């Protein structure tokens, strides 16, 4: 529920942000044109590389559409979108996302059915993120255009079908099923801006403004009671409604420290700890890991000793497991099994190594039940976000290095980001614990335990970027 205290620490609506929100509301036609332009660029980058021959050794970003598309999607687009969530909230979703535009368009002309219960299952953001991450690794989505078309294009087709079937002028797909909806929602919790709602003004003006033009909130946000920008696509359509909704600045730590105490859920914790800090780390790391090679060799030896040779030879179609013989890039069934095992084990081990200290911190503070743990897990968002951005930008670095760019500053920049994100998470964790009841000694001990929870994911990134 909205309270004055929840809004108290927000900075007052500042002129420029407020004006930008109102500008967006007045220029929705321009926003729609912008969205269709992005849809066009997205379609070209998605489809053209599939019909072209795979790039040879002489192919570069500037002379080959496939390498260019690879660089744009994984080197700029995705890391850029994640960074934009931290800076502007989900502005990308509301203004530029091609899937959002397409699903809303389909919904405008579709069946308009009621949203079934299965779609509203709160576990989708976690499950969809894990499935797409793992499937992307199995098919080498960062390297080849066909899996890109399958993963991103498949998601787009899903968005259009769901839009066509459910809701009217809505973004049902984005609200419930988009594989990155949960991640975007978590990152937006740290954004220094949001659409704030003055409930007193809303209630006061509701009667006198009864003829005011109604707005369509496509991602189905209950605007009147909106406290967090997590589900809001920042489209600006509600800006100025009842003179109560304004785009405004806020402190980036406020939501996690204060509001998340009430709103954090177990699915958030699963997505942060097991998804972003477990599965994602395993997915980014396996191909660089010497442990992966060792495990594979040990299993291969054991299989040969038992005269079971087929897993070392059998391959699967490219849409299940990487299979590009001409490129000398083929994963056998054994490779695939070790890959899945590696990601699953990494996710499990990291989840345990993160969750146990956090749980212990709650215990030390005398906090029983899940809510305190879910709240504390929100403090991990900066480190989780930094990891995913670093992991994706590793692709950028690889592509640029292959094209001869000298990037000697990258290790230092990575270190600075990792240290900054770790300190930010620690600051949030300590701030959350400081607000709880308890002695200083307990709070110090709980903060130390929280720091211990950060150690394992930090070490995993150090292994990947500096040791292996
Ligand atoms: S609450 Fe809805 S209408 Fe308002 S800016 Fe967010 S997405 Fe747009």
From TrEMBL:
Keyword Oxidoreductase part of the UniProt annotation: no
Intracellular or extracellular location(s): Cell membrane
Keywords for the protein's UniProt record, in alphabetical order: Cell membrane, Membrane, Transmembrane, Transmembrane helix
Entry-linked InterPro entries: 4Fe4S_Fe-S-bd, NosR_regulator
Broad class of where this protein is predominantly found: membrane
One Gene Ontology CC term in the entry: plasma membrane
Transmembrane annotation, as ranges: 34-56, 76-97, 118-138, 144-166, 173-191, 269-286, 298-320, 340-360, 372-394, 406-424, 444-467
The keyword Transmembrane is assigned to this record: yes
Pfam families reported in the protein's UniProt record: Fer4_5
4Fe-4S ferredoxin-type domain location: 72-112, 156-192
Superkingdom assignment: Bacteria
Entry protein name: Membrane protein
């Amino acid at each position: 529920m909205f309270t004055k205290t929840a809004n108290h620490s927000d900075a007052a609506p500042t002129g420029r942000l407020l004006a930008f929100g109102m500008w967006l509301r007045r220029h929705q036609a321009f926003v729609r044109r912008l969205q269709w332009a992005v849809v066009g660029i997205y379609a070209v980058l998605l489809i053209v590389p599939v019909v072209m021959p795979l790039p040879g050794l002489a192919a570069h970003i500037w002379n080959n559409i496939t390498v260019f598309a690879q660089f744009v999607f994984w080197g700029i687009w995705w890391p850029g979108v994640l960074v934009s969530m931290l800076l502007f909230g989900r502005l990308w979703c509301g203004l530029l996302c091609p899937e959002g535009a397409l699903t809303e368009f389909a919904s405008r002309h579709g069946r308009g059915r009621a949203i079934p219960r299965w779609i509203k299952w709160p576990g989708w953001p976690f499950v969809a993120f894990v499935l797409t991450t793992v499937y992307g690794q199995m098919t080498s989505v960062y390297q080849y255009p066909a899996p890109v078309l399958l993963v991103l294009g498949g998601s787009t087709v899903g968005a259009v079908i769901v839009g066509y079937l459910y809701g009217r002028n809505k973004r049902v797909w984005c609200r419930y099923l988009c594989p990155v909806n949960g991640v975007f929602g978590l990152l937006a919790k740290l954004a220094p801006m949001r659409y704030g709602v003055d409930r007193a003004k809303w209630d006061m003006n509701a009667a006198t403004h009864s003829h005011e033009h109604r707005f369509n909130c496509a991602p189905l946000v209950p605007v009147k009671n909106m406290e967090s920008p997590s589900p809001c696509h920042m489209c600006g359509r509600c800006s100025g409604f009842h003179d109560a909704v304004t785009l405004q600045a806020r402190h980036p730590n406020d939501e996690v420290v204060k509001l998340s105490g009430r709103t954090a859920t177990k699915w958030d914790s699963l997505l942060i700890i097991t998804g972003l800090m477990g599965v994602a780390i395993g997915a980014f790391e396996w191909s660089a890991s010497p442990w992966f090679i060792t495990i594979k060799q040990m299993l291969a030896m054991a299989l040969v000793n038992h005269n079971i040779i087929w897993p070392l030879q059998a391959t699967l179609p490219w849409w299940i497991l990487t299979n590009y013989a001409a490129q000398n890039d083929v994963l056998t069934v054994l490779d695939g099994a070790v890959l899945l095992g590696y990601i699953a084990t990494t996710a499990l081990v990291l989840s345990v190594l993160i969750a146990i200290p956090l749980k212990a911190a709650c215990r030390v503070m005398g906090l029983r039940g899940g809510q305190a743990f879910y709240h504390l897990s929100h403090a991990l968002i900066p480190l989780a976000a930094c990891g995913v951005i670093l992991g994706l930008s590793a692709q950028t670095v690889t592509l640029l290095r292959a094209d001869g760019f000298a990037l000697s500053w990258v290790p230092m920049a990575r270190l600075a980001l990792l240290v900054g994100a770790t300190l930010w998470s620690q600051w949030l964790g300590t701030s959350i614990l400081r607000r709880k009841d308890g002695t200083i000694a307990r709070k110090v001990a709980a903060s130390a335990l929280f720091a211990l929870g950060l150690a394992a994911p930090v070490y995993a990134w150090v292994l990947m970027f500096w040791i292996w």
